[in-house]
Amino acid sequence: MNTSEPAASAESLLRAAPPHALVATAGRLLADRAGAQDVTLLLADYGLTVLQPVTHLPHTGEPVPAHDGPAGRAFNTQAPVVEVTRDPATEVVHLPITVRGDRLGVLSVRLPSPAVDPAMVLRLADFATALGHEVDTAGRDTDLYLQARRTRRLTLAAEMQWQLLPGRGCARQEYVIGAHLEPAYAIGGDNFDWSTSADHLILTVTDGMGQGIDASLLTSLTVGALRNARRAGIGLADQACLADQAIYAQYGGKVYASTLLLHFALDTGTVHAVDAGSPQLFRQRGMTIEQIALEAQLPLGMFEETPYQEQTFHVEPGDRLIAVSSGVHGARSADGGLFGERALRQTLSAARLAPPHEAARSIVAGLIEHFGSRQLTADAAVVCLDWNGRGIDAATPSRNAM
């Protein structure tokens, strides 16, 4: 890549490209400036099992494993991987594409071998990040990248749920979030949501009653009501109260949504919580795993004008929090054993050193093994949060940040 070019020139050309033409534009830019012979954008599918090449739809290229091979290693480790090919004249650089902690996929670039040096890999990594931001934005105007993520058709309920999610991850200095849903192509009522500001993070995990479209509609109302209350700037307990009223007004107590609401103070690690139903919360501190015992309050929408109370606990740097829906902790094996009794803790312990995204996926993989089939009878949502805390200077923006 020509270092004499202005730093933002590639980004500006990507921004100017039509939404559907980002891959072609990226290929031309990398061919002109880095001598790239081939450029492939691979997006992670909804189940996080494969990386799908973005080509001319409705057809995609041959997928590659999301957890094996050079591209899979780049995706999982979130670090560039240089693949030595059979052709000694070229190498392929696989670069993770991640937007603010949300892993989208991998950019694979074939280059002449003499061109692949550490400086080039760093410049390509910056380019991949810029491309990721444009792919994320382009999703508002084209279905291309959403379609390319699918190995098969989503159910309508799953379509609604995936559109409702903020992403599958979020990262900043104070924390890293990784989340996973299963069954990815037929999810109904499970949801997670978050919002961050200069001084706090609000995280919710919701389990809508029922299955299919009915559960998805209920969860959509619940998440919309919670967002509406949150954006009004009111406290966590009042957010639960307003969402409770909205659901009861619509359904009259016939159905309800179990929801866990968490408010993190980024400067102190104090967490305010409202446990309105069945999601469970675990904390890993060192090698110790404990369930955080919150007062179980009524699910949202069960009765008219239910009062909710906040509780508090504290997280310390190095802590990991794991929130799981009832489809996780309540799943039973063929012999009737609950996943939440012992197998969940074993899975949490085994995944302790894995990053949050991989830990969440590992928990779902452990659930599927415990259940004995990928055809789960209930939705499963897992949210894993690693708490780093705030350094002394973290609250003050650097003068060099602009």
TrEMBL record:
Alphabetical list of Pfam families matching this protein: SpoIIE (PF07228)
Gene3D superfamilies: 3.30.450.40, PPM-type phosphatase domain (3.60.40.10)
Domain of life: Bacteria
Swiss-Prot/TrEMBL keywords: Hydrolase
Keyword Hydrolase: yes
Sequence ranges assigned to domain PPM-type phosphatase in this UniProt record: 172-387
Protein name listed in UniProt: Phosphatase
Species of provenance: Streptomyces lomondensis
